[in-house]
Amino acid sequence: MVSSSVDALAQAAFASSESIFAVDSPSSHPSQTIERLGDKYTISNQSPAVTIVQANADPFHKVQESASAKKDLTSVLATSDVLLPAIPHLFKIASQRSAVVVHVETKERESENHHGNNSKGATKSGVVPSHADLMAVRQTGFAILTSDNTQTAFDLALVAQAAAVQTSTPFVNAANASVTKNDKVVLDHQKVAPALISELDLAQHKERQAAVSEISLSTLYLKPTPAASADAATDAPSTATATAATPEEIYNKVEELLVTLQKHTGRAYRPIEYQGPANPKTVVVSLAIGSTGLENTLQAHHADVGLIKIYLYRPWSERHFLEALPASVERVLVYEQAPASHTAWTPLFLDVSASFHSAEAAWEGTIPKIVSARYRGSGADLSQADLKDSLASDKPQLIINPSYVAPAHHSTASVVSEADVDTPYLQMLTQVFADRLNIENGIKTDSVWGASQQSPEFGYGTLVTKVAARARFAELVSKTVQDSSLKISEQLRKALTQWHLNRSDSKLAKRHGDEAILLLQEAKESLVGSLAEISAQSSQFVKPSHWLIGADAWAYDIANSGVHHVISSNADINLLILDTEPYTARTQNPENRKKDIGLYAMNYGSVFVASVAVYSSYSQVLHALIEADQFQGPSIVLAYLPRPDEENVSPITVLKETKLAVDTGYWPLYRWNPSLDEKGEEPFRLDSERIKLDLQQFLERENHLSLILQQNPDVARTLTHSIESEAKARDAALKKKAKDDFAKLMGGLGGPPVLILFGSDGSNGEGLAKRLVKGAKLRNLSARYVAMDDVSIEDLTLEKHVIFVVSTAGQGEFPVNAREFWKALSATTELGVSDTKFAVFGLGDSHYWPREEDAIFYNRPSKELHAKLVELGATPLVDLGLGNDQDADAYETAWAAWEPQLWESLGCKPLEGVVEEPKKSADDAMKIDSNYLRGTIAEGLLDETTGQLRAEADTKLTKFHGIYQQDDRDLREERKKQGLEKAFSFMVRVRVPGGVATPAQWLAMDSISDVTANGTLKLTTRQAFQFHGVLKRNLKKNIQLINKSLLDTIAACGDVNRNIMCNPNPHQSDLHKQVNDFATDLSAHLLPKTSAYREIWLDQKLVKGEAVVDHEPLYGPTYLPRKFKIVVAVPPNNDVDVFAHDLGYIAITNKDGSLAGFNVTVGGGMGMTHGNKKTYPRLADIIAFCTPEQAIETGEKVMLVQRDFGDRMNRKHARLKYTIDDRGIEWFKAELQSRLPFQLQEPRPFKFLDNADRYGWTQGQDKMWHYCCYIENGRVKDTPAEPHKTGLREIAKIHQGEFRLTPNQHLIIANVKASEKAKIQSMLEQYKLDKLNYTGAMLNSMACVAFPTCSLAMAESERYLPSLVSLLESTIEEVGLRDDAITIRMTGCPNGCARPYVAEIAFVGKAFGAYNVYLGGGHHGERLNKLYKESLTEPEIVAELTPMIRRYAHERLEGEHFGDFVIRAGIIKATLSGKTFHDLS
Ligand SMILES: Cc1cc2nc3c(=O)[nH]c(=O)nc-3n(C[C@H](O)[C@H](O)[C@H](O)COP(=O)(O)O)c2cc1C
Ligand code: SF4
Question: Where is the Flavodoxin-like domain (predicted)?
């Protein structure tokens, strides 16, 4: 079965080649066709060697090298767009006489649709197969065959293979891409191929090849010169000659082979074929490719017209062409595909014309009239209507289908395929400039990466013409308004004058232009002279935004590309140059430094230059595009969009590549706007925040140093001297002595000095290393600890005692901070460590990778390290210690046995009477020492030498202020390699009780995210705002701006009560208001009272001389043992997941719908640790009912019981859920009751239906409207396709109600008046916020932040969940579950921020790309789920869940939810309490 031309071409190639190159591109995969063929066909009983090459990896370079080295019969399968960039290689292949046959399917290309008038900026386009590539290579020395259907393509492919080898000439064999439905293709290659090529042919070709030296291209048949023809006449063809085959030889060979083909198949062709009447007056000439429509129409309607079909186009044989042409002919019409109307003469027309003047083949009769007839489109659909007029026309040039409309582009908008790499920028251009946008060269990927016709140089000429045309129009307007003799109304004269004055300003030009157009239309009848001309050209009033788009090639070669033209033109033209080279695959060659284009352009002075990256900063791109448009002169925008050379590149990869490039300064973000200089402002703006900081610090240091040196010449000398001595100190002996002396200095400690090295990704390994240091000090040993990567392996030779604590990361890998060390050590065969004694303690988890064959990964690093040190000759102090998370006390179990042995081996006696680990909570001590949460935060903020808060305690204390220190984990390794500190930044969480914010607050958040953070806003699972990427120097400003908006960050994190959540939908208006007010009051009641927050962040200084006297009436100086979370639910909606929190209130209503009070729930919580069964998620118990008046006091006392009884020694066991499970729920109730002055009542009935949000419009009892938008994973950001952030900003500017954050990370535009609804709706549509046609699964999915900022993340979450859900969606839709809600949640670690353990399906990160899958949670959050399978990868997840979803669709009971079904079906056991969560049997 043949389903495309490439199938047929591949069959033929496979049957008759020795090597095949399959050139894959995003849109075409010939390699897949080849794979399907297997090794069925061979020419010399050997399967061809198949090489797969990527279209963007210079494939013909490889083809040329291989063909020239191996001298074998080579075929290439590709689409025609690869030909153009291959031209230099094609010349070379031809000159080497390699038997290479390039089988190409014509590539579909953009084609403008022509409806007569396309002056309005961007035109609509469609796609048609283009013959342009073929024509472009017609002079490379390749013979060219073209075919009109798939059978012919197949036949000619066999002929091309044979002709190539028998004439030692390379061929291109081209076929149209599409297969006609009725094409029945006979694939008889097994019979035909051996008849066309023999082994002898191959041997003779190889002989000829051996004799080839580089021959001059002039001897090829580019065009038969008289000399070449003479040579051809005298040089008899021979089997082994170094001379290229003559055109005649090639023509004859093809003809001969076609005869052979006919003998074996009955299918007849001639290289140049005439069909039609014997004595026609009119003959049409066409390449075979594209001739079908023509042929059919002629046969049906014009029996008197002849047709010459050219199968063999190169070499062009004038003699044979003239021989084929009947002598009676009076008119020759040359039909050719020519999309561009401005090409002077078309190639085939020139060939045909020249033939009549050939010396070689004189035409005997009168030279006929030759007409160039061009068609648009593929030619297949040329009709009688198209042909009729052209056949009768006398014009020398015709366009025969002027109103041709290309079929609409088949890619769907908002689906960005891998190929459409330029799409984000193009979408932005379209959004920003709308109707004014004019992209002169093609706007699809093909155009940017492909043909020269669409290249920027090509567009440049047209643009200059357009700019000049508008300038002429302006001149006309100017003259007209000055022409006092012209009868023109004052109003119109004014409008035209104003337009003329403001024609470069897009807005004013439009305003005055529109005025003028209106007036011109009113006076339409009486317009004469220049006014009529102005009216006719009224489209020129609009100021177009002219853009050219160039790609990588432009970026490299400034001199030869059109960049230079544009820069020096001074014309108002904008150039967008895309750079797609991924950072990790960057070219190290400095000559290829693309970013220097920017420098080059800036040197010109009057050019706007910007360097942007859409996945780094959307708003910066936006600003750059707008400024470029406004700048009156040339603008260059260098745009980064890495395109890794792999199939199905994930958006995360593109994002990471961009971040690396921007952060490391490889792709700095900046804008150079010379017009600012004129205004006295700085024209250069560096937009890369982090680089700005690094640069600033660097300059400051440099400055500082040079000042010192200038002022103190002595210091300069000392400095030089000290550098010298530093060099000397590198001498190993000196270094050793220095170390020994240092050790002695450390207080004359008696025992041997100990170096403790750790490798740890989390905190376990590092924690043990710290404990060793303390232990050593207690034993009078001097000890220091560092990460393994912070020492070199040579340091081991200088140490007497080295202790390693190394945990296991990834899949049996070393942690990030130990990898370099291990790389060096494992590669070493000799190291002077015979005097070194060592010990290794490993941390791992024997069940992390549960499959049997993965047992090797258990504690692998520690095992490998121990073995390697022994191999190098070091002496173990004790046996390898293996900490295992599966042991009763996790790694502590093995540690307890190992540590005493270690001290003993170091000669230390057991300590008597000394308490090793102070049995006081370290965290409590830290809180007490902090002076009510002050610590040294204020001092740390002033330290400009680092982006972090250095003091560990400060990083914990800032959490109480709503701030988390984080570092960008995408950048960790790269920055480490470059010797830079981690990319530190801060996450700031804003407390929003009940999730309600005013439009003014929304606008403030929006702007704060741009000014001080990473430009996006995160709506959290607990109804808070989060800013990410806040740099230390912006931190204070960030907090101050938040406070200015009347929100704050106090107690948004830390061991205190956090943001109080509340059902956000106010449609039950009265009840809702009461409940929400309660949430707000309770939140205020439980706030910490320390003044540290205001002092540190808001600069509210204490009165001079006054000592700090803070008091925390509720918390005391040690605050709570752990975080404390409160929610308020309003049935029937459990969107807040009331059972997943420490304390919950369920609103109970009276019969009339008013608030009766609350059921109180206690002891819920999600967090746990993988492998540690002592930790588990737990659902809250409903313990009582209280009235609204009692609710605050009840809440306070619940919190205080936890304050007094919560575990303060073990943070993993410190939540209220453990306090309750340890002491019993009855104890808890009694303890609570004993603190209350009133009696709690029995809980009252209620009913929850689900825990999801209500999307779309709802109307409240008070007739106000509320719209809930779907915000994917709560991330409010702009993308070119969905500018949500901009949209919400615009809505906030006019909205008079509130913005309500939902517990599922979505957003309600609440309290919209009926009169405003239509306006809001239209804005929702405009900014794509109205999209709700997702599947129920997508609408009910939720993910935590995880990578890159969360330090606990083990796997992706927010950035990954949507793509995983979309993989399941096809099944969901197929089985009819599109609108069924299934709750799916994902977190990057077991901490559970997105409340995964109550989801029906949950994915919890285990390691990069691996997730534990949990099933069976209750649909409305009433039941925990259970572990189904561990560490599944994406394909495994899909393979597991797909059949399960199908089964659910077929077997579910009426109204049965997925979580209930998997339990009933026996797929998973129900979890009935937190304690049995891990119980799998
Ligand atoms: C992402 C990840 C991957 C892990 N892979 C392994 C592994 O392959 N083999 C193993 O024995 N332990 C593995 N573990 C378990 C850790 O080594 C163990 O939990 C250790 O205590 C972590 O120490 P740290 O906090 O110092 O990094 C892995 C843990 C994580 C978080
Ligand atoms: S669940 Fe884990 S990975 Fe996700 S945000 Fe919370 S702590 Fe980070």
Answer: 754-903
Closest CA to 96 of 72, 78, 79: 72
pLDDT at 1153: 87
Least confident of 775-784, 817-826, 1140-1149: 775-784
| Cα(854)–Cα(810) distance, integer angstroms | 12
Q: What is the CA radius of gyration of the chain?
A: 39
The model's pLDDT over 667-716, given as tens digits with 9 standing for 90+, comes to 888 888 988 887 888 788 888 777 666 555 555 555 555 555 555 665 55
The answer to whether residues 59 and 75 touch, using CB atoms and an 8 Å cutoff, is no
CB 368 within 8 A of CB 329: yes
| Long-range Cβ contact pairs of 124-128 (< 8 A, separation 24 or more) | 124/408, 125/406, 125/409, 125/443, 125/444, 126/405, 126/406, 126/407, 126/408, 126/409, 127/406, 127/407, 127/409, 127/410, 128/339, 128/376, 128/377, 128/378, 128/406, 128/407
Indicate the burial class of 1410 (C-beta count within 10 angstroms; 0-12, 13-18, 19 or more).
buried
- Evaluate whether 326 touches 283 at the Cβ level (below 8 Å): yes
CB 937 less than 6 A from any atom of ligand 2: no
Nearest ligand 1 atom to the CA of 765 is 26
CB 1024 within 8 A of CB 979: no
CA distance 952 to 1120: 19
Distance from the CA of 1388 to the center of ligand 2, in angstroms?
Answer: 5
Give buried/exposed letters for 731-750 (b at 16+ CB in 10 A, else e): eeeeeeeebeeebeeeeebe
Q: How does pLDDT run across 1366-1379, given as a tens digit for each residue?
A: 999 989 988 999 88
Q: Give the strand pairing for 608-613 and 545-550.
A: unpaired
134 Cβ below 6 A of ligand 2 = no
Tally of residues, the chain: 1481
715, containing H or E segment: helix 713-729
- Of 1318, 1332, 1317, nearest to 1271 by C-alpha is 1332
DSSP state of 124: P
Token pair of 684, please?
Answer: 């250069």
With contact defined as beta carbons under 8 Å apart, do 1412 and 1427 qualify?
Answer: yes
Position 451: which residue type? A
Token pair of 830 as six digits: 């000799």
Beta bridge partners of 1057: 1124
Nearest to 1163 by CA among 1185, 1186, 1145, 1140: 1140
Please work out whether the CB of residue 817 comes within 6 Å of at least one atom of ligand 1: no
CA 1397–ligand 2 middle distance (angstroms):
13
CA distances for 672 relative to 169, 558, 602, 624, 693, angstroms: 53, 19, 7, 9, 19
The tokens for 225 are 């010169």
Check: CB of residue 990 under 8 Å from CB of residue 1005.
yes
Using CA positions, which residue lies closest to atom 28 of ligand 1? 809
Which position has the token pair 């660097």?
698
Mean pLDDT across 951-965: 94
List all residues 6 or more positions away from 622 whose beta carbon is below 8 Å from its beta carbon: 428, 432, 1278
Mean pLDDT, rounded, for 1297-1302 = 95
Q: In this predicted structure, what is the pLDDT of residue 401?
A: 65
Check whether the bond before 1131 is cis (ω within 30° of 0): no
Residues catalogued as catalytic: 989, 1058, 1123, 1125, 1344, 1350, 1389, 1393
In 1058-1117, which residue ranges form alpha helices assigned H by DSSP?
Answer: 1069-1085, 1092-1097
Calpha distance 411→432 (Å, rounded): 22
pTM equals 0.63
Partners of 1405 in beta bridges: 1411
Nearest to 556, CA basis, from 588, 597, 598 = 597
The single residue listed with the structure tokens 């006295």 is 680
